[in-house]
Amino acid sequence: MMSTTTTSVRGAGFSIDEEESAEERIRRLISEHPVIIFSRSSCCMCHVMKKLLATIGVHPTVIELDDHEIASLPTPPPPAPASAAHSISSRNPAPSVFIGGTCVGGLESLVSLHLSGHLVPKLVEVGALWG
Fold this sequence. Notes:
6 helices, cytoplasm, alpha+beta, redox-active center, Glutaredoxin, 5 strands
């Protein structure tokens, strides 16, 4: 059963339609939130992702998924040369962060985006951060 943490969503409710499949619900949630992280409960990498975003001034929506729901997560496109690191992340898609409806990937991708200087402009572009 999909659960949410409310550390980043103050006063916002999630509508859950029992008729929705896990994939439909995930796609809807991605479209409704500018920054959303899908994770397993007690995931240390998710904690680091939240801390990184919080230091920038963004408080993402965090959704905890069951194993069968994690399989419904969209995955980021593979990098030009397929790497061993990408094949590992493809098998284990959680945690995954989506910014502006686009899958950024996991912790390594988020940190890489930040270190390259592209994270803050992307967050400003989707309205998650004021520049």
